[in-house]
Specification:
Layout (H helix, E strand, L loop, with lengths): L12 H9 L14 E5 L14 H7 L4 E2 L1 E3 L5 E3 L2 E8 L2 E6 L13 H14 L10 E8 L2 E6 L6 H5 L3 E2 L16 E7 L3 E6 L12 E6 L3 H10 L4 E4 L14 E16 L12 H10 L2 H8 L3 E3 L22 H10 L6 E7 L5 H12 L3 E3 L11 E8 L4 H12 L6 H12 L3 H18 L2 E14 L2 E2 L14 E2 L4
Parallel strand pairs: 1-12, 1-13, 16-17, 16-18
Antiparallel strand pairs: 2-9, 3-4, 5-6, 6-8, 7-8, 10-11, 11-12, 13-19, 14-18, 14-19, 15-19, 20-21
Amino acid sequence: MGAARVHGNRGAGWSLLVAWLGGAGLGCHTTPPPAVVIGHTHVLEKVSPRAVSRDVEFTVLGNVYDTLVSLGPELELTPGLAQSWANLDERTMELRLRAGVRFHDGRELSAENAVRALEEARSRSRGSLVNLDDVVAIEAAGPLTLRLRTRKAAPTLGLRLCLIFVALPARGEDGADVGTGPFRIVGFEPNGFVDLEAVEGGWHDRPAFRRARYLQLADDRALGEALRSGAVHLARVNAGAGGAEGTFPPNLRVVRRAGLSEDLLTFSGPLAPPNPFADVRVRRAVALAIDRAELAAAVGSGSAPLDQVIPRVVHGHHATLPPALFDVQEARRLLDAAGWSQGFGVRLETTTPEARLLREAVAVALGRIGIVIAPANEPAADAPVVTVTRITFPPDAAWTYSLLLRHLAAGQGSPELHDLVDRAELEVDPQARLKVLETVAETIRREVVAVPLLQHADEYVMAAEIGFRPRLDRSILVADLEWHGRR
């Protein structure tokens, strides 16, 4: 096997990995190997359904614990532990639980233990984006009937339930929380690996792979090496994983799909004079100076122009919003009208190491209209700041706009815009909500609260025998994998 590095291994090493797998890479098997290995480069220090803050934690735990409502591959709501649900009124949601579901220790799922799980989740999630702060009552309305009442209309409650695991405390003092998912955890090394084994006789369909390992690698290059050697069978990769040539051998299959990750340019700090960006004409000039096709070409494979905050794959995308314009002449005219015909200097900050190429391309674009970016090693302390942020937004347009206004562009936007976002968060009728969200998109463009730049595809590399349909939420669940080799 290759010499890929493993974080925090503390002696487990590749030899133990091979022993646990029961053989070498996937390519030499005509039947599924004893285990499938899913690689990642994220820090994984804990595996607890009580504290989930990272994509990789949600992915790993999604094999072990279920949610009341599930999120489908395209972000659609599908039955989970609740086989059906309905809104009795705009503040009351009733869920019918599946009969005969058992936790891994034999206890049966009931409305009462679902209430306990949600009460615990409500207490620990206060103030976070995925919270139950507006839920005023969680009740068992029957043995398998759960009822939630909210303080006000809550159109995103079903989506939030997709992100909260139902778990019971273990009977022993030192045991892990017990789930109902298709797998249980049988081994864990912090910052090293998580080993899973299929649960016999559960309510889920029998998975193609009975064992799985989520293996943490040091960086993208190590992940690429592990894929080539067969030590890892499937992973979501960044550009660095392809190595210097940026490609993978024929025995590996590459699948790409449009994702939720995007680059935005925002204007940092309070927008008040003498900051040039306090004038909306200057912000519009910045937006007009951006050639998104040029940015995508500079950044490379997997990037596509983005001209509104909500991408096409998310409900709330404004399908009829005209494309963003690229017009250097009009941008210069706006700067002249705003009193900045000679241009000015700015600091350009980025939030991710891989944004170097994008930073350079944005600097070229703004330079065309006289806005000069200070060199990264020569920061101009008093210059206004623009920030290029790469972010993966939540799977709801109203949440995305709320995150934008409260964090990335805090203190910006008109009262009208903030009121519209508040309305979108409370509107329960889907069509009426879409109309409000479309108005939000139009207002953000008019006020130039943010300048959308690029949308990034999610890229997955896998052994040719593995069948996998990438999900918009980026989760790689073992139960979703298929085996296409000879049996």
